[in-house]
Amino acid sequence: MQKKEFKSESKRLMDLMVHSIYTHKEIFLRELISNASDAIDKVYYKTLTDTDKTFNKEDYYIRITPDKEKRILVIEDTGIGMTEQELEDNLGTIAKSGSLDFKKGQEMDEEFDIIGQFGVGFYSAFMVADKVTVETKAVDSETAYCWVSEGTDGYTIEASQKEGHGTKITLEIKANTEDNEYDEYLESYRLRQLVEHYSNYIRYPIKMLSEKTRLKEGSDPENPEYESYQEDEVLNSMVPIWRKNKNELTEEDYKNFYHEKRFGYEEPLGYMHMNIEGMLSYKAILYIPGNAPYDYYSRDYEKGLELFSNGVLIMEKCGELLPDYFSFVKGVVDSEDLSLNISREMLQQDRQLKMISKKIDSKIAEELKKMLEDDREKYEKFFAAFGNQLKVGTYDNWGQNKDKLQDFLLFYSSKEEKLVTLKEYTDRMPEDQKYIYYASGLSVESLDKLPQVSIIKDKGYELLYLTDHIDEFVIQMIRTYADKEFRNVSSDDLGLDESEESKKDQTLTKDEEAMMDEMKSLIGEEVVKVKTTTHLKDDAAYLSTEGDLSIEMEKTLNVMGTGEQAKAKKVLEINKNHPVYEKLKGFYNQDQEQFKLYTQVLYNQARLIAGLPIEDVVSFTQNISKLM
Ligand code: ADP
């Protein structure tokens, strides 16, 4: 019999399969089962369109039979089968040509990744088998045909015998190697696992004969005898939970499914069941997990939803379905309108996935909004787990998504002494308050003691305490909320309405101005300016900043080590109403030594309040002692 060569593209794919180092070789089973299911779908369609046929449910199934001794695994279906020409066309060449074009010139690794993501159909059988035999008989045909291949060097097709229509694929499983245990594909328990995992929701029963034990008939109850027998077992559940009607399902059902899928170990905080009909129909069940996975905030975390095409798992983590800011969401999406081999119609599918992801995006937003409004306690739990991701999302991509996300953020309020939204803050702002004030630092306790904070509090205004490193960057990205700008309390301009009285207070004599300049030059480049303030109460001095970069941001950026040293434009503000100010004035011109000493101590005190290190701690404490 003459051996035929594979078409070049198929040969290439075959080569990839035979020599695959891909770690999830088990997906071959999913691929073959999916093909079988498609083949049954086609018969089903025929019975719907041909009036002389009826679809008898019991006649349609997929059967898996392992044989350990012979090292073979058989997968058969009662589907449409293939004619000789179809065998030639379908298995001798890749049906949709051009699918491998975009892979040319790429590294092997990337190609294997494509296998992992999409599967590559029938040829994946060669990842686990040395020899593949396909016996098939088309519906309405008298003759059966047999296709055999041992890999890259070609295949044969000849007429053969087969009862009934359908396809029977026999895999001669490879011998174990150092890296691969092929034996597992001959074990019933493993095959059952694989079907449950990858093909649970196939619409037709996937059967396997399983070994059972029973009491022998007529055996003496005193001295029971047992016999083993074989019984058909259906391995798949056939009806996926998302295909069920919402009102058929209880909260318990959704929770069970969540745990079955291992989406998280704590109870989910919310779930959504979507049933979209239209040009692109799909169903989805989505969860907001109760806890962040241990690797959530690490680079290892991979977002994505399980993607099914008509009940067949085609991707375990389809990242395209979730925006980064909702990357914590888990769940499944099933669409009849997606093809099994997504990679083959990349662009087309891309558009479909985008449509789905857009809907999912707004569905999640809706769910979170509901939680925020109806169950604050739950929302706070959610925010503790995933709030940071929302903050990152608000900041990322130059704030592209800030309008969508800013209302989901919570910050600690000085007034409420709990987490509040920006809306809650601005809704209760007094008429005369121009800015949304915030203070940024390590903890609520330390911020509450800041001199600048009491200035705002004394005005009766509310402050937001930002204690996460990213907070201030987020706030600066948002820029304005409800037409109000944000203002850091450590800014050198708090934007408060100054009374005529205090304005007068602020005017300095020529001599005082010269004194400020002198202090600035004594301190040097570390500050951009020294000026007076009348806002402070007990403190003699503090550090404010000019411009957008605050001291807290400077600290964060420098810890992150972005290369360049970040430096906030610091302004030393001296309390004009403090007794120290009069002393300073006294020393200025008269006692240069004391003036220098006072300046150094005031500046270093201000650094301490701002949480900044002091360069020369020893001389600072010595200076304090001198003053004492
Ligand atoms: P795909 O399923 O993406 O088309 P495959 O390489 O898996 O790619 O299969 C190629 C073709 O072979 C299928 O489109 C189908 O026409 C045919 N085929 C594969 N398996 C079967 C089967 N069990 N029964 C009938 N036809 C099959």
Offer a few descriptive terms.
Heat Shock Protein 90, eight-stranded mixed beta sheet, Ribosomal Protein S5, domain 2, elongated, six-stranded mixed beta sheet, binds adenosine-5'-diphosphate, Four Helix Bundle (Hemerythrin (Met), subunit A), 628 residues, 22 strands
Describe this structure in words.
The protein has 628 residues and is an alpha+beta fold. It has 3 domains: 11-212, 2-Layer Sandwich (Heat Shock Protein 90), CATH 3.30.565; 241-378, Ribosomal Protein S5, domain 2 (2-Layer Sandwich); 507-545 and 565-627, Four Helix Bundle (Hemerythrin (Met), subunit A) (Up-down Bundle), CATH 1.20.120. Strands 5-4-3-6-2-1-7-8 form an 8-stranded mixed beta sheet, covered by helices on one side. Strands 15-14-17-16-19-18 form a 6-stranded mixed beta sheet, sandwiched between helices. α7 packs across α8 and α8 (376-399) packs across α13. It starts with 7 loop residues before the first helix and ends with a helix. It binds adenosine-5'-diphosphate. Adenosine-5'-diphosphate binds at residues 35-36, 39, 77, 79-82, 90, 95, 121-123, 167, 340-341.
Short description:
This protein has 628 residues and is of the alpha+beta class. Helices cover 36% and strands 21% of the residues. The protein has three domains: 11-212, 2-Layer Sandwich (Heat Shock Protein 90); 241-378, Ribosomal Protein S5, domain 2, CATH 3.30.230.80; 507-545 and 565-627, Up-down Bundle (Four Helix Bundle (Hemerythrin (Met), subunit A)), CATH 1.20.120.790.
